Amino acid sequence: MALDFLSEPAVTVLGMRPHVVAHLAVSVDGATTGFAVDLARFYALATLWQEDVTLVGSDTILAQEPALISAPQPGPRQEGPLLAVVDGRARVREWDRLRRLGHWSDVLALYADQSPARPPDSATAELVTGYEHVDLAEVLEKLAARRDAQVVRVDSGGTLVGVLLELGLVDEVSLLVHPVVVGAGRRWFGAFGGRLGLRHANTEVFEGGVVWMRYCTA
Ligand SMILES: NC(=O)c1ccc[n+]([C@@H]2O[C@H](COP(=O)([O-])OP(=O)(O)OC[C@H]3O[C@@H](n4cnc5c(N)ncnc54)[C@H](OP(=O)(O)O)[C@@H]3O)[C@@H](O)[C@H]2O)c1
């Protein structure tokens, strides 16, 4: 029986949402795939935010599911963030393995009204918002109200970041730019077609020519 995230007691403060940071490894031409990512540096830098929630796109999780089968399973990390996966089409299967991976304290499936039925024996906590798609603004409000989430780090190949940008829900953009041009491929801003002013916050250059650029939105 799936646990209902909403049934947890809490005081709801409408309109409040956490600080949202999108941290991505990109090529010089903004692609998120098709090149070798400096993963050690990427994840070392990701610890900077000490996020309360890691918000991940389902396609990012699905890309990792084969590797999860053989990954060590030390168990949930009590002090770790919550892993929340936007899974409107209910495609993610390896919830237990994700929970026991040793990175997160727990997992939360984010579904919409129209999401396919989940297995009846599912023990994964879930939050249902939106009709066809997960309502990301409502999710963030509920995470603030129900989990006191103050910082959310988005892990996505760009699609989810693009939707969040369209909705004006990204506060900080962190790009780890790798010295390569890959041509075709998904960009870090997804299908975002608007114009977004950015305020430079910091730049660092690392060995090997990898450049870390941080910007605040608005
Ligand atoms: N370079 C990097 O930093 C980096 C980081 C992470 C991943 N990756 C790579 O990037 C690839 C996956 O990234 P991706 O960009 O394809 O996908 P993604 O961002 O991981 O997943 C797409 C997400 O967007 C959601 N979405 C789409 N439209 C929406 C809407 N209108 N409202 C709400 N949610 C919506 C989808 O929900 P549904 O589930 O409902 O469709 C899904 O959760 C993988 O190859 C992965 O290895 C790279």
UniProtKB/TrEMBL annotation:
Per the record, the GO terms for biological process are: riboflavin biosynthetic process
> Molecular function terms in GO for this entry?
5-amino-6-(5-phosphoribosylamino)uracil reductase activity
Keyword tags: NADP, Oxidoreductase
Please name one Pfam family that this protein belongs to. RibD_C
Q: Which InterPro entries match?
A: DHFR-like_dom_sf, RibDG_C, Riboflavin_Biosynth_HTPR
Which superkingdom heads the taxonomic lineage of this protein's source? Bacteria
The biological pathway it contributes to is:
Cofactor biosynthesis; riboflavin biosynthesis
List, for all copies, the residue spans of the domain called Bacterial bifunctional deaminase-reductase C-terminal. Answer: 18-211
Put simply, this protein is called 2,5-diamino-6-(Ribosylamino)-4(3H)-pyrimidinone 5'-phosphate reductase
What is the organism of origin for this protein? Kribbella amoyensis
